[in-house]
Specification:
Elements (H helix, E strand, L loop, with lengths): L4 H4 L16 E3 L6 E3 H6 L15 H8 L6 E2 L18 H12 L5 E8 L2 E8 L10 H16 L4 E4 L11 H4 L3
Parallel strand pairs: 5-6
Antiparallel strand pairs: 1-2, 3-4, 4-5
Length: 178
Amino acid sequence: MVGIDKWFRRRRAEISATPELPELWARCAGCAAQIYKKELGQNLGVCPECGHHHRISVEERITSLTDPDSFTLVSGRVGPVDTLNFVDLKPYPERLKEYQEKCGRPDAIVVGTAQILSRRVVLGVLDYDFMGGSMGSVVGEEVCRAVDQALAHRLPFVMVCASGGARMQEGTLSLMQM
């Protein structure tokens, strides 16, 4: 008879932990509040309830810092090289290709010219979504080229760092970038 009482117990209505329209809502990792994504975007990724900072994309970062439609991309002319023939769970070139397809850029940095409060600048932004923003030879070369461009045109250089450090797949070459 123990099993029969299961039939007569009231069942609680399941309350969904996620909202019906997940593309409209986000859950704060800091306080678990549900936040309207548009409001989170207007607040530059900061939770209005607890102040937790959510990760924002390179594009969102550039848009938040620069005057509208003033950013011109100048990076992307340098590509990574696998000098060590590095393999962990997969070969380094294969891992790079995955991140290049995922992020739509050749490496973990975006460099361009823009205006901030109507003043021209050279802007570099590291992309944490690309291998944790790790710095390899491409990041170092792009930063050097950006600084050279800023010096040549007497412009301020602004760098936004979002990096996990040196890229182990490039060994000493990545350490030299730091």
